[in-house]
Amino acid sequence: MAHIDDPQTQQANKAYIRQSMDAPLLEKEMEQDLARRWKDHGDEKALHRLIEAHMRLAVSTATRFRNYGLPMGDLIQEGNIGLMQAAERFDPDRDIRFSTYASWWIRAAIQDYVLRNWSIVRTGTTSAQKSLFFNLRRLRAKIENRREREGLDDEDRQEIAQTLKVRPQDVEAMEGRMAASDKSLDAPLTDESESSWQDMLADEAPSPEEIVVGMKDSQSRSKWLHDALSALPDREQTIIRQRHLDHETVTLEELGKSLGISKERVRQLEQRAMERMKASLVNRTDDAGAFFAE
């Protein structure tokens, strides 16, 4: 569903657009001078003038994305963020106009905003998926006009997939995503139903009984592990604690230095201690292996 701004917001957007379009354009030498003053001396007045002269780029780019149902003011502001990022990174010593450089940053910022907000479900994560999202409607309309019919068949999807270098199944999946819309979980299942979609969701969380049993099992396992550890000689307890139980584990070499033995001897003691603990736990539970990571 397309977003419709209230009258006050529409008026504010129009005033901002007029202001952006009225800002004077800059000659190449002037924009390079402003960029240098900002880059070399941190001149904020120069930065502001450079940005103000190119706000029309953010406006014109934002209008190309107005059909995605998002607030026009937000699209423009996202474009302005891209414009400021471009001003921050622009190298005036390169033989390129700032408008050419900034256009990429503005478009990228607006596209990221559309992808984040067009649906509550993430739409595109790779560059190929983003290209598919932003070009599918245009390519679909082109094919429909050429074939003089609505909708895509498998041959059409194959054509789009080859053009955008994606898989045909990706085209079909994106087509379905873009044809659907987000639904509120509070919405009724049907016009006559009193039940909502959220009533149909299964609760996968453990029940209160399972939580209590789990807590008791955890307490029992902790006690078994403590008893098995306490039965070890002091030096082996130290090795097990520092190698497996402390938040920051230490290496065999570090332990060897602190205990005054070789790294290999530490490894032998560790292995023997683990075997003793496993033997102790086998007498308590059939699942002693769950206490030890491989």
Structure description:
The chain is mainly α and 294 residues long. The protein folds into 3 domains: 1-118, Four Helix Bundle (Hemerythrin (Met), subunit A) (Up-down Bundle); 121-181; 208-291, Orthogonal Bundle (Arc Repressor Mutant, subunit A). Helix content is 66%, strand content 0%. It is built from 13 helices and no strands. The chain has helices at 7-22, 28-41, 44-52, 55-63, 72-89, 98-117, 127-147, 154-164, 168-179, 208-230, 234-245, 252-259, 263-282. α5 (72-89) crosses α6 (98-117). The longest helix is centred in the last third of the chain and has 23 residues, at 208-230. It starts with 6 loop residues before the first helix and ends in a 12-residue tail after the last helix.
